[in-house]
Amino acid sequence: DFRDETLITYPVDRSRLDVFTELLLPAKVEPRAVRQVELTAVILLLVASNRGVAVLPDWVLRDVKLDSDYVTRPLTEKGITRRLYAATRDKDTSQPFMAYLLRLARTEPLKPQRRSA
Q1: What value does the mean pLDDT of the chain take?
Q2: What's the CA gap between 41 and 23, in Å, rounded?
Q3: Residue 85 has what pLDDT?
Q4: Structural domains in the chain?
């Protein structure tokens, strides 16, 4: 339950944070406190030092899921997914690295979230 927790987020308006729009606001839940931090590494340090909880994308958590300093939990039974968009300069679209990135983005399947113990 988020009511008793300090929620650590990026410095973004609540209306743009899925944890608020998809979970907390509909459930009429307000965290004990909200702390905004710009850097993912600092968010992870604060969580590891027991100064709050954070809701982060799966791609951020892939590297820390096996670290005993962290416990990960899906927010809902199915998790929350979002479509991501990428922008690039026209001159870069013909570059090999960009062609690879675009091909990867189109073909990489959505990886289901796994519940950690």
Answers
A1: 86
A2: 24
A3: 77
A4: 2-61 (3.40.190.10)
Decide if 9 contacts 19 (C-beta within 8 A): yes
Cβ proximity of 70 and 48 under 8 Å:
yes
Cβ atoms of 35 and 5 within 8 Å: the answer is: no
Tokens of 106: 């189109």
78-115 tens-digit pLDDT:
878 777 777 888 888 889 998 888 888 787 665 554 44
Closest CA to 110 of 73, 59, 64, 68: 59
- Give CA–CA dist 65/96, Å, rounded: 32
Residue 74, token pair as written in the block: 């899906």
Residue with tokens 């100064």: 51
Q: Can you list the alpha helix ranges (DSSP code H) found in the chain?
A: 18, 25-27, 40-48, 58-61, 96-107
Between the two ends of the chain, the Cα-to-Cα distance in Å is 17
